[in-house]
Amino acid sequence: MSHALDLYAKSEHLLGIEASTQILHSIFLTLLEDEQIGSVLDIGCGRGGFMTQAIAAGIKCRGIDLSPVMVAAARQKGLDVACQNICEVSGRYEAAVAIFDVLNFIPPEGLSSFFHCVAGVLEEDGILILDVNTEYGFSDVAEGSMSAEDEACFLNVNAVYDNGRLSTEFTLFYRQEDGCYLKSQEQIEQYFHTLETLKNNGALVLVEDHPLSLYDVDDKMLLIFKKK
Question: pTM here?
Answer without folding.
Answer: 0.95
